[in-house]
Amino acid sequence: MADEILDPPPDASPSPSPAPATPPPPATPAALLRPRREAFEHGLLPIPKLIFPEGTLAQTLAQLKEKLAAAAASPGGRVGAAALAEALQIPREQAALALATLAAVLPAEDPALGDGAGDDAGADIRDVLLFLYVQSYKRLVPRNAHKDSPAVADVWPSTSAFDGYLSALSPIQLVRSNSRRFMPSQADEEIHQLSYLQKHMANILTLLADSVEGEGDDSLVLTMETFEHLGFLVQFSEGTSLSQAATFFANSDPDMPAAPVPAAQVLDWMSQNIASALEYSAERSAAKESNQQTMSDLDVTMAEANASHPRSSTPSSNPAYYRNVTFVEGFSKTSVVKHASDVKGNSIKVLNCHDSVIYILAPLKYATVYGCSDATVVLGAVGKVVKVEHCERVHIIAAAKRICIANCRECIFYLGVNHQPLVLGDNHKLQVAPFNTCYSQLRDHLMQVGVDPGVNKWDQPFVLGVVDPHDSLSHPAGVSDVKAESATCLDPDLFNNFLIPSWFGDERQEPTCNPFPLPEIYGACQNKKRSALEDIQKTIRELQLDENRKRELATALHAQFKDWLYGITGTTTVSCPQLQAISASSTVYKATNHAMNCAHN
After folding, report:
1. Burial of 101 (0-12, 13-18, 19+ CB in 10 A)
2. What is residue 251's predicted lDDT score, i.e. its pLDDT?
3. For 270, how many CA atoms within 13 A lie in the half-sphere containing its CB?
């Protein structure tokens, strides 16, 4: 799907007085160069030996290029995990992780690389060099620290010696800070990424260029094929390929290879387009700020924050938000459902949702869950990467190729994943469990995005460091060597199927339709609970109760179900030990309803 910029919606609220005249936003250029956010959001790994000092970055990668070219697995310049591990002096499993991450963020599928997991997988050396170069990128950080840190500490206790250095704003801080006004916006991040590319483009082109006979600038040239590899970092907003947009390669005869172009000419063209994009973004940001009322510096409660900042489940009017991303943002104490027809593009971001249940029942390439607390997020089928960051007491139910978990606390992940879950950053009390839900189109969605339900590595976390070198923060000496806290497996007795409501009248879903087979011990516990339910059904059917007692029993059973549904434990409504033992089962509602119907009859 081509990316299209969304124009801001008209302001429907009446204005008490004429607004001061403001300059109109700049017209959208016919072709706007943008950074590919996938490379920056999902392509960075906190492995120290992948990150080179900026002062020696170009020289180090030029030397690495020679090593990789000499060790390439084939004349086509393919680099496998063994060659990459030897060149970088890293363990082979880390090299394999790097190739798998590269495969997940390439703009198009590379058949020779696949998903990067095979022993014979090999990446194009140009893609490897671009991937390694972008590891030097530093993310934007919050613009200001929160002014009320002691109050925040009351609800976000510091249990780590590194909290002050490593943790960004907690979910509670995000609410208390007037709806993320301290966090970089999507527009801020894209401007930051463009500035990074503007600074480094000369070195990047030199790294990719081929040497030919000649003097000065004419000795380095780029072929059209090599030029297209820059699509790893940049793209045009309306979907035009780089070679078609570039005047020196446009309308090339497909039957005759285009002549190589001097790297200096390519640099001039790229620099002009990046400068135009930065100028346009700056003008749009200035126009937006001039139309905004200054926000109050006073803290707000969660209820006030939710009322003051409207919830959004569609792309923002921010010019940096495009139709290939769907946003679900700012929901509190509610349920949100997104089917395939509701999702625009191939990526979704669930941001700052609290005390809510979010159902994303659609095939996607990328998904991000950020800054959520006390919520359940269901992600139906994600073919590239799921990233979960800065969440607290959240249940994530995800079927995906890969998942990355960073800086989360007291979260449970119910996973169906083809690759090891990547765990990094400052985490506490994480638990993992097998995938535990289904819906009518799940198998079709898994097939569409290439997730294999026969392979599930939910219980094999791959743990990296507690420090992320890409976060632009300073860290105390020695912290970079500390490993992140890993996740533990959920007790099988606490494992339950999650029942997705039937959104359409013809849906009839049972927990047994889970496409990911359950491990034996978890399956045995589920069978035990089903047996307990059958015993309860039988007991209720055999009870000799008058109408008043039947109504009392029905009320008690339904109260138990509601307590389970909202995550409340320790109820005293029903004293039956068997019922309390299985009150968290996803089938209790149907079982008790059926039993009560039998009892009434």
Report:
1. buried
2. 62
3. 28
Is the distance from CB of 89 to CB of 49 less than 8 angstroms?
yes
**357 Cβ partners below 8 Å, 6+ apart?**
335, 336, 375, 376, 377, 378
Query: In 246-402, at which residue ranges do the beta strands (DSSP E only) sit?
Result: 261-262, 325-329, 335-339, 347-351, 357-370, 376-389, 395-400
Q: How do 357-370 and 376-389 pair as beta strands? A: parallel
Distance of CA 270 to the CA centre of its chain: 29
pLDDT at 217: 64
Write the CB contacts of 588 (distance below 8 Å, at least 6 apart in sequence): 533, 560, 561, 564, 582
d(CA 376, CA 355): 8
Query: Max CA-CA distance within the chain?
Result: 101
Q: Token match 């707000």: residue? A: 300
pLDDT given at position 170: 53
The owner of tokens 């297209």 is 228
194-223, pLDDT tens digit by residue? 999 999 999 999 999 988 876 666 789 999
Q: Is 263 helix (H, G, I), strand (E, B) or coil?
A: helix
Q: Which distant-in-sequence residues (6+ apart) come within 8 Å of 360 by Cβ?
A: 328, 338, 343, 348, 350, 367, 377, 378, 379, 380
Nearest by Cα to 299 from 212, 428, 190, 181: 181
pLDDT digits (tens, 9 = 90+) for 146-161: 444 444 444 444 444 3
| 593 CB neighbour count, 10 Å cutoff | 14
- DSSP letters, 425-484, are SS-BSEEEEE-----TTHHHHHHHHT--TT---TT--EE-BS--GGG-----TTGGGPBP
Could you report the per-residue pLDDT of 465-481, keeping only the tens digit for each? 877 777 755 455 455 56
How far CA 406 is from CA of 107, 167, 176, 390, 464, in Å, comes to 24, 10, 22, 7, 10
The pLDDT score that the predictor gives to residue 462 is 94
Among candidate residues 246, 272, 251, the one with its CA nearest the CA of residue 261: 246
What tokens does 307 get?
A: 């009322």
CB 401 within 8 A of CB 379: no
Structure tokens at 315: 């792309």
pLDDT at 71: 78
Collect the ranges in the chain with pLDDT lower than 50. Answer: 1-22, 145-168, 171-172, 174-180, 293-311, 314-322, 474, 477, 505-507, 511, 568-601
Instruction: Give the separation between CA 152 and CA 253, rounded to whole angstroms.
Output: 62
Query: Residue 468 has what pLDDT?
Result: 73
CA distances (Å), origin 2, targets 5, 28, 239, 241, 251: 10, 15, 5, 11, 20
